[in-house]
Protein backbone atom coordinates (compact mmCIF):
# COMPACT_ATOMS: atom_id res chain seq x y z
CA UNK A 1 0.00 0.00 0.00
CA UNK A 2 1.55 3.28 -1.07
CA UNK A 3 1.85 6.19 1.34
CA UNK A 4 1.89 8.70 -1.54
CA UNK A 5 -1.39 10.50 -2.21
CA UNK A 6 -0.46 13.20 -4.72
CA UNK A 7 2.48 14.30 -6.85
CA UNK A 8 2.98 17.95 -7.83
CA UNK A 9 5.33 19.08 -10.61
CA UNK A 10 6.95 22.41 -9.68
CA UNK A 11 8.38 24.47 -12.55
CA UNK A 12 11.18 26.48 -10.93
CA UNK A 13 12.63 28.37 -13.90
CA UNK A 14 14.69 27.81 -17.04
CA UNK A 15 18.35 27.45 -17.93
CA UNK A 16 19.68 28.62 -21.31
CA UNK A 17 22.44 26.20 -22.22
CA UNK A 18 24.28 24.68 -25.18
CA UNK A 19 22.61 21.47 -26.27
CA UNK A 20 25.95 19.74 -25.73
CA UNK A 21 25.34 20.08 -21.99
CA UNK A 22 22.29 17.84 -22.36
CA UNK A 23 23.42 15.44 -25.09
CA UNK A 24 27.04 14.48 -25.68
CA UNK A 25 28.16 15.16 -29.24
CA UNK A 26 25.45 17.69 -30.12
CA UNK A 27 26.22 20.67 -32.32
CA UNK A 28 27.76 23.23 -29.91
CA UNK A 29 26.12 26.08 -31.84
CA UNK A 30 22.64 24.95 -30.77
CA UNK A 31 21.33 26.63 -27.63
CA UNK A 32 18.15 25.54 -25.89
CA UNK A 33 16.12 26.59 -22.86
CA UNK A 34 15.52 23.74 -20.45
CA UNK A 35 13.17 23.76 -17.46
CA UNK A 36 14.23 23.41 -13.85
CA UNK A 37 11.69 21.23 -12.06
CA UNK A 38 11.25 19.92 -8.55
CA UNK A 39 8.62 17.52 -7.26
CA UNK A 40 6.38 17.63 -4.20
CA UNK A 41 4.60 14.63 -2.72
CA UNK A 42 1.68 14.64 -0.32
CA UNK A 43 2.10 11.47 1.75
CA UNK A 44 0.69 9.78 4.82
CA UNK A 45 3.93 10.78 6.55
CA UNK A 46 3.89 14.45 5.59
CA UNK A 47 5.07 16.57 2.67
CA UNK A 48 8.13 15.31 0.78
CA UNK A 49 10.07 17.57 -1.60
CA UNK A 50 12.37 16.10 -4.25
CA UNK A 51 14.99 18.76 -5.00
CA UNK A 52 14.95 22.40 -3.95
CA UNK A 53 15.17 24.39 -7.17
CA UNK A 54 17.41 27.39 -7.81
CA UNK A 55 17.59 30.26 -5.32
CA UNK A 56 16.30 33.29 -7.20
CA UNK A 57 18.03 35.59 -4.67
CA UNK A 58 21.32 34.73 -6.37
CA UNK A 59 19.90 36.20 -9.59
CA UNK A 60 18.22 39.27 -8.10
CA UNK A 61 21.29 40.59 -6.26
CA UNK A 62 23.86 42.06 -8.70
CA UNK A 63 26.88 41.02 -6.62
CA UNK A 64 25.67 37.44 -6.27
CA UNK A 65 24.66 37.29 -9.92
CA UNK A 66 28.25 38.22 -10.80
CA UNK A 67 29.97 35.91 -8.31
CA UNK A 68 27.73 32.86 -8.73
CA UNK A 69 26.94 32.98 -12.45
CA UNK A 70 28.73 35.50 -14.65
CA UNK A 71 32.28 35.23 -13.29
CA UNK A 72 32.35 31.38 -13.41
CA UNK A 73 31.00 31.49 -16.99
CA UNK A 74 27.33 30.59 -16.37
CA UNK A 75 26.20 33.19 -18.91
CA UNK A 76 23.43 33.74 -19.79
CA UNK A 77 22.19 33.06 -16.27
CA UNK A 78 19.01 31.11 -15.54
CA UNK A 79 15.57 32.72 -15.71
CA UNK A 80 13.38 32.52 -12.61
CA UNK A 81 10.18 34.57 -12.92
CA UNK A 82 8.01 35.33 -9.87
CA UNK A 83 5.62 32.53 -10.86
CA UNK A 84 8.57 30.11 -10.88
CA UNK A 85 9.70 30.88 -7.34
CA UNK A 86 9.44 27.75 -5.23
CA UNK A 87 8.06 29.53 -2.18
CA UNK A 88 5.30 31.11 -4.26
CA UNK A 89 4.38 27.72 -5.73
CA UNK A 90 4.13 26.18 -2.28
CA UNK A 91 1.88 29.07 -1.25
CA UNK A 92 -0.47 28.38 -4.16
CA UNK A 93 -0.89 24.85 -2.82
CA UNK A 94 -1.56 26.30 0.63
CA UNK A 95 1.86 25.49 2.11
CA UNK A 96 4.85 27.27 3.58
CA UNK A 97 8.44 26.15 4.00
CA UNK A 98 7.68 24.88 7.49
CA UNK A 99 5.17 22.38 6.10
CA UNK A 100 7.88 20.42 4.28
CA UNK A 101 8.84 17.47 6.47
CA UNK A 102 11.39 15.77 4.22
CA UNK A 103 13.55 16.91 1.32
CA UNK A 104 15.36 14.34 -0.80
CA UNK A 105 18.15 15.88 -2.89
CA UNK A 106 19.07 14.19 -6.17
CA UNK A 107 22.46 15.93 -6.14
CA UNK A 108 23.86 19.27 -5.03
CA UNK A 109 24.14 21.20 -8.29
CA UNK A 110 22.82 24.73 -7.81
CA UNK A 111 19.59 24.14 -9.75
CA UNK A 112 18.64 21.45 -7.23
CA UNK A 113 19.97 22.84 -3.94
CA UNK A 114 18.77 26.45 -4.00
CA UNK A 115 16.25 26.52 -1.17
CA UNK A 116 17.83 24.01 1.21
CA UNK A 117 18.73 26.95 3.44
CA UNK A 118 14.99 27.48 4.02
CA UNK A 119 14.47 23.85 5.04
CA UNK A 120 16.70 23.67 8.11
CA UNK A 121 13.85 22.09 10.09
CA UNK A 122 13.24 19.27 7.60
CA UNK A 123 14.70 15.79 7.29
CA UNK A 124 17.33 16.16 4.56
CA UNK A 125 18.29 13.01 2.63
CA UNK A 126 21.40 12.84 0.41
CA UNK A 127 23.71 10.13 -0.91
CA UNK A 128 26.94 9.82 1.04
CA UNK A 129 29.09 10.05 -2.12
CA UNK A 130 27.39 13.30 -3.13
CA UNK A 131 27.98 14.78 0.31
CA UNK A 132 31.66 13.88 0.18
CA UNK A 133 32.13 15.34 -3.29
CA UNK A 134 30.13 18.52 -2.68
CA UNK A 135 32.15 19.29 0.44
CA UNK A 136 35.50 18.39 -1.15
CA UNK A 137 38.02 20.39 -3.09
CA UNK A 138 37.07 19.08 -6.55
CA UNK A 139 33.46 20.34 -6.66
CA UNK A 140 33.08 22.72 -9.62
CA UNK A 141 31.23 26.02 -9.96
CA UNK A 142 28.00 24.06 -10.49
CA UNK A 143 27.92 23.44 -6.74
CA UNK A 144 27.01 26.59 -4.73
CA UNK A 145 28.38 25.81 -1.29
CA UNK A 146 26.46 28.65 0.32
CA UNK A 147 23.28 26.71 -0.53
CA UNK A 148 24.21 23.81 1.74
CA UNK A 149 27.35 24.47 3.82
CA UNK A 150 25.26 25.42 6.84
CA UNK A 151 23.60 21.98 7.00
CA UNK A 152 25.09 19.65 9.60
CA UNK A 153 22.26 17.15 10.05
CA UNK A 154 22.13 15.35 6.71
CA UNK A 155 20.68 11.85 6.62
CA UNK A 156 23.28 10.18 4.41
CA UNK A 157 22.35 7.04 2.51
CA UNK A 158 24.27 4.36 0.63
CA UNK A 159 22.82 2.53 -2.37
CA UNK A 160 19.11 1.99 -2.97
CA UNK A 161 17.06 2.96 0.07
CA UNK A 162 13.32 2.76 0.84
CA UNK A 163 12.06 6.10 2.15
CA UNK A 164 8.49 5.00 2.93
CA UNK A 165 5.89 2.73 1.30
CA UNK A 166 5.58 3.99 -2.27
CA UNK A 167 8.88 5.95 -2.37
CA UNK A 168 12.17 4.20 -3.13
CA UNK A 169 15.46 6.05 -3.52
CA UNK A 170 17.53 4.72 -6.44
CA UNK A 171 21.30 5.01 -6.64
CA UNK A 172 21.86 6.45 -10.12
CA UNK A 173 25.39 7.81 -10.02
CA UNK A 174 27.05 9.13 -13.13
CA UNK A 175 25.79 12.65 -13.73
CA UNK A 176 27.35 13.40 -10.36
CA UNK A 177 29.14 11.07 -7.93
CA UNK A 178 26.14 10.56 -5.65
CA UNK A 179 23.18 11.22 -7.92
CA UNK A 180 19.88 9.62 -6.87
CA UNK A 181 16.44 9.21 -8.45
CA UNK A 182 13.05 8.24 -7.02
CA UNK A 183 10.64 5.45 -7.86
CA UNK A 184 7.18 6.26 -6.54
CA UNK A 185 3.74 4.66 -6.64
CA UNK A 186 0.57 6.74 -6.92
CA UNK A 187 -2.87 5.29 -6.15
CA UNK A 188 -4.39 6.06 -9.57
CA UNK A 189 -1.51 7.03 -11.86
CA UNK A 190 0.55 4.03 -10.77
CA UNK A 191 4.37 3.80 -10.92
CA UNK A 192 6.38 6.93 -11.72
CA UNK A 193 10.15 7.26 -12.02
CA UNK A 194 11.55 10.70 -11.18
CA UNK A 195 14.92 10.37 -12.87
CA UNK A 196 16.25 13.87 -12.05
CA UNK A 197 19.45 14.42 -14.08
CA UNK A 198 20.27 10.87 -15.17
CA UNK A 199 19.45 12.36 -18.57
CA UNK A 200 18.18 15.84 -19.39
CA UNK A 201 16.09 14.73 -22.36
CA UNK A 202 14.02 11.73 -23.36
CA UNK A 203 16.53 11.43 -26.20
CA UNK A 204 19.17 10.41 -23.64
CA UNK A 205 17.01 7.42 -22.73
CA UNK A 206 15.61 6.50 -26.15
CA UNK A 207 19.03 6.48 -27.77
CA UNK A 208 21.17 5.80 -24.68
CA UNK A 209 23.14 9.00 -25.21
CA UNK A 210 25.38 10.33 -22.47
CA UNK A 211 24.84 13.78 -20.95
CA UNK A 212 27.40 16.40 -21.87
CA UNK A 213 29.23 16.07 -18.58
CA UNK A 214 29.40 13.15 -16.18
CA UNK A 215 31.47 12.26 -13.15
CA UNK A 216 31.74 8.78 -14.70
CA UNK A 217 30.69 7.94 -18.26
CA UNK A 218 30.47 4.25 -17.40
CA UNK A 219 28.20 4.89 -14.41
CA UNK A 220 26.12 7.47 -16.33
CA UNK A 221 25.36 5.02 -19.12
CA UNK A 222 24.60 2.26 -16.62
CA UNK A 223 22.13 4.56 -14.85
CA UNK A 224 20.39 5.45 -18.13
CA UNK A 225 20.03 1.75 -18.87
CA UNK A 226 18.85 1.03 -15.35
CA UNK A 227 16.09 3.66 -15.56
CA UNK A 228 15.02 2.31 -18.95
CA UNK A 229 14.82 -1.20 -17.51
CA UNK A 230 12.77 -0.07 -14.50
CA UNK A 231 10.35 1.89 -16.69
CA UNK A 232 9.82 -1.18 -18.87
CA UNK A 233 9.61 -3.64 -15.98
CA UNK A 234 7.15 -1.60 -13.92
CA UNK A 235 5.22 0.05 -16.73
CA UNK A 236 6.20 3.34 -15.12
CA UNK A 237 5.78 6.89 -16.32
CA UNK A 238 9.16 8.63 -16.66
CA UNK A 239 9.49 12.25 -15.54
CA UNK A 240 12.66 14.28 -16.03
CA UNK A 241 13.94 17.56 -14.62
CA UNK A 242 15.10 19.34 -17.77
CA UNK A 243 13.18 18.18 -20.86
CA UNK A 244 11.30 21.14 -22.44
CA UNK A 245 9.20 18.93 -24.73
CA UNK A 246 8.20 16.57 -21.93
CA UNK A 247 7.24 19.58 -19.81
CA UNK A 248 4.53 20.58 -22.29
CA UNK A 249 2.66 17.35 -21.58
CA UNK A 250 2.85 17.54 -17.78
CA UNK A 251 0.29 18.87 -15.33
CA UNK A 252 1.98 21.65 -13.37
CA UNK A 253 1.23 22.65 -9.78
CA UNK A 254 -1.21 23.49 -8.34
CA UNK A 255 -2.62 20.69 -10.50
CA UNK A 256 -1.39 17.24 -9.48
CA UNK A 257 -1.20 13.51 -10.20
CA UNK A 258 -2.88 11.11 -7.80
From TrEMBL:
Its cofactor is Zn(2+). Coiled coil: none annotated. One of its GO terms (molecular function) is metal ion binding. Keywords: Hydrolase, Metal-binding, Zinc. InterPro entries: MBL_superfamily_lactonases, Metallo-B-lactamas, RibonucZ/Hydroxyglut_hydro. Residues 35-242 form the Metallo-beta-lactamase domain. The keyword Zinc applies. Belongs to the metallo-beta-lactamase superfamily. This is N-acyl homoserine lactonase family protein. It comes from Histidinibacterium lentulum.
Amino acid sequence: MTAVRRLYVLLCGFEIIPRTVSVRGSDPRIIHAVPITAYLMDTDHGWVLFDAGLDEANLRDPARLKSHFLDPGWDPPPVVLPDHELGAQLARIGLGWSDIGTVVVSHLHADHSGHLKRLAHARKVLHRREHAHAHGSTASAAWFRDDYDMIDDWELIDGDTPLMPGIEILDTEGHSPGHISLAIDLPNTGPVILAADVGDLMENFREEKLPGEASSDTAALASIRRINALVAERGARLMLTHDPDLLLGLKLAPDFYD
